Amino acid sequence: MRFELSDSPGALARVTVRLAAADCNVLALHVIPVPGGVLDEIVVRAGEGVLPADLVEAVRGEGGRRVGITRAEMRDLVDEPTAVLRAAKMALTDPDRTAEALRQVLAADAVTSGEATDDQVQLGGLVARRGWARFTQVELTRAQAFLELLDAPAPSLRGMLSDDGVALVLRPGVAEDEEAVTGLHARCSMRTLFNRYHAGMRTLPRRWVHRLLDPPRGTTTLVQCGDQVVALGQLIHTGTPECAEISLLVEDAWQRRGVGAALLAALASDARAAGFAELVAWCLPAETALVRTAARAGLAATTRREDGLLRVSIAPRGRALTTPAAAVAGEKTR
User: Fold this and answer.
1) Would you tell me which CATH number, out of the four given (3.40.50.1970, 3.90.950.10, 3.30.70.260, 3.90.700.10), belongs to the domain 2-72?
2) What molecular function terms (GO) are annotated for this protein (predicted)?
3) 2-72 and 158-326, same CATH topology
4) Is the distance from CB of 18 to CB of 61 less than 8 angstroms?
5) Theoretical Cys-Cys bridge with 283: which of 5, 294, 310, 321, CB 3.0 to 4.6 Å?
6) Would you place residue 332 in the very low, low, confident or very high pLDDT band (cuts 50, 70, 90)?
7) What is the DSSP string of 77-139?
8) How confident is the model over 162-180, as pLDDT tens digits?
9) Mean pLDDT, the chain, as a whole number?
10) Confidence class for position 329, pLDDT limits 50, 70, 90
C-alpha cells in the first residue's frame, strides 16, 4: 500500500494500530519524502477475510490521502538498495532485460519502449506505467541514475580468472605492445597460427604486428598474465552498420582454460555498446572451436559454408557468463 500522511508524530503508528486490530501484519516499510508530507509504502499480510477495500478504509480513517494498493511481489520484502543492485546486475549481464530491471526498480506495472502518453513517464527510450500509485520524484531520480549507470562506458581494464584460478587482465592493445604480441605469436604452434591466419607462417611480419595493434577500422583487446600477452582478440567494422568481424588468438598453453570464452564475451560486450547486432568470424571448414567458445561465453552461434570457409555468425546479446569454470569441461577454446 502507498498513502500520504501528514509528517507528524504518531500518524503512522495510528495506521498500524488500525491494521493490527484487523489482524494484519506489516512486513516492510519505506518512507519517501514528498512535498507537504511523507509517502509511506507498507507491505501487509492481510488477516483472514480482510479485503483490499477494508485496508484502504483503515488508512483513510487515520488521515491517509491518495491511497494506492496492489498485490506485493517477493522483491518488496527486500530492502531498496539490495533490490536496485540486483536489478542492475540483471541489466548489465543481460541488456535485453533492461526494461524488466527498470520495472523492478520503479515497482511499475509495465516498462516498454516507445513514447509516453499522459499517464506514463518517459525515461530515455523507455516508458514506465503504474496505475495503482503515482511515481514520486525520488523514484524517478533513482530510475534515471540507474539508467545512467547502465550507459556508463565499460572500463578499459577488466579482470578474469582462468578455469584453474589464474588471474588475468583484459585491456586494449597499444603500440608499445609490439614486442609482447610478437612473443605471443612465437609461442603459438603452427596449427594455432594456421587456424587464425589461414596461412603457414612461423614469424609475423612487423607490419602485421602494427596492424594488429592499430587496426584502421576496429579495436584490439589483449589478455595479459604477468608481463606476457597470452591472447589477442579483434573487433573490426565491416562497413555494414550492424555487423562486425571478430578474430581470436589464444596461446596453446592457455587453450581449454576459459581464456577464449572470456575474451569473446568481452568483445561481444564492446560490440553491444557499439550497436552491432551480429559478429562474424571466418574459420577453416573443420575448425569448430569458435562455436564451442561462443557456447561457453553464453552466445548463440550459427554456421554456414561460404567461399570455401566456415562463416560463424554470433549474436552479441546472450545469457550472462558467470565463470569459465561453469562451462562444460573439456571444451577446446581458442
Assistant:
1) 3.30.70.260
2) acyltransferase activity, transferring groups other than amino-acyl groups
3) no
4) yes
5) 310
6) very low
7) GS-HHHHHHHHHHHHHH-GGGHHHHHHHHHT-SEEEES---TTEEEETTEEEE-SSSPPPHHH
8) 999 999 999 999 999 999 9
9) 87
10) very low
**Cα-flanking dihedrals φ and ψ of residue 240, to 5°?**
-85, 125
pTM: 0.53
Q: Topology of domain 158-326, per CATH?
A: Aminopeptidase (3.40.630)
Least Cα distance to 235 among 212, 222, 255, 218 occurs for 218
Domain extents for the chain? 2-72, 76-151, 158-326
The number of angstroms, rounded, from the C-alpha of 210 to the middle of its chain's C-alpha atoms is 33
171: helix, strand or coil? strand
Residue 330 has pLDDT above 60, yes or no: no
- Cβ–Cβ under 8 Å, residues 264 and 280: no
C-alpha cell at 220: 584490439
What stretch of H or E contains 42? strand 37-45
Q: What is the pLDDT of residue 172?
A: 94
Each residue's pLDDT tens digit, 32-55: 888 777 889 999 999 899 999 999
Question: Under the phi-then-psi rule, with left for phi > 0, alpha for psi from -120 to 50, and beta for the rest, what region is 275?
Answer: left
